[in-house]
Amino acid sequence: RHPLRCLENLITAMTAVKKNCGVVFCSYFFLALAFGWSILWTIALVGIWDDTITCTVNEAGFNVCSEPNYGILFGMFVSYFFTHQVIQNTIHVVVAGVVGTWWFAPDEASSSSCCSAGVCDSMKRALTTSFGSICFGSLIVAIIQALRALANSARANDDGNAILVCIAECILQCLESIVEYFNKWAFIYVGLYGYPYLEAGKNVFTLFKNRGWEAIIADDLVSNTLFFVSVVVGGLAGAVGLILSKTTDWFEQAASNGEAASFTLGFVIGLVLTSIAMSAIASGVNAVIVLFAEAPAEFEQNHPERSQKMRETWGATYPGCM
């Protein structure tokens, strides 16, 4: 039953997106932007690495390289993760706005062209009045991700106390999960109603608490499946990085850590780019869940067939939730 509920959520989200196919082109545009930024950032990182890391041959005939400048690395990681978080969350907000328009005013969300009023208005709000909220939430996650990347780099280079580095990684991973979970739902309200970041998060979790849906939103197969796809693609990109480290001299400055550096870089880029591509689907599903909790009557009025199927599936999975 539970997979059927997730399937109905996905079908409803895809129905809204198909009525506004312009949002798909917006997602691909942002994905191309993210890909271009990844290439530019990688070139900059390789250049900085070459300028700041010096390698010499010791008496035993082994390459010995200097320690990386962690201050510069932190700034580079923050810039990389922040830009990608902004791109991903902009897609999140745009898709939420489009699904909301389809939910409440289906006439505005349907168009013979790919750019319906719902897509244009949602994009305009995301890049103007809501852009500050997007940047604020993105910066919090980016700083945590950059600190995790530094901890991973320190552990790979055997810098510092290994136990303390491991503890720091664990704490940062927990913080990242908490903030990303908050953002996942907060940005839905930002896209739907234009609330500020913190107010949006407070309102959406109050909604779930009042409806008694805390356990329901925590039990989401769609997000877990999309994350698994992102990890698999990240692993494949990491494998490409390993191949490049064997066939090119791009990572020769990393000496003995060249393979680890190439795999990590490829994995991170593949994971981030795939996460952006999957975010349009995840955002649509999350928007459907929020709207189904807040405005089931409007859904029944504007889309009675979809509403009936979702009510039946949700009622069978979680009796008494409606």
Q: Structural class of the secondary elements?
A: mainly alpha
How many β-strand runs?
A: 2
Helix segment count?
12
Globally, the shape reads elongated
- Radius of gyration of CA atoms, rounded to a whole number: 22 Å
Instruction: List low-confidence stretches.
Output: none
What is the CA–CA distance across the termini?
A: 16 Å
Classify the beta-strand content into a percent band.
under 5%
Mind sketching the topology for me?
Elements: H1 2-19, H2 22-52, E1 55-57, E2 63-65, H3 70-104, H4 117-127, H5 131-156, H6 162-193, H7 197-211, H8 214-218, H9 221-247, H10 258-294, H11 296-302, H12 304-317
Antiparallel strand pairs: 1-2
Helix pairs in contact: 1-3, 1-10, 1-12, 2-3, 2-10, 3-4, 3-5, 3-6, 3-10, 5-6, 6-7, 6-10, 9-10, 11-12
Can you walk me through this structure?
The protein is mainly α. Helices cover 80% and strands 2% of the residues. The chain is built from twelve helices and two strands; from the N terminus they run H-H-E-E-H-H-H-H-H-H-H-H-H-H. The chain has a two-stranded antiparallel sheet. A hairpin with a 5-residue loop joins strand 1 (55-57) and strand 2 (63-65). Helix 9 packs antiparallel against helix 10. It starts with a helix and ends in a 5-residue tail after the last helix.
Summary tags:
322 residues; two-stranded antiparallel sheet; 12 helices; elongated; mainly alpha; 80% helix
Briefly say what this structure is.
The protein has 322 residues and is mainly alpha-helical. Helix content is 80%, strand content 2%. The mean pLDDT is 83.
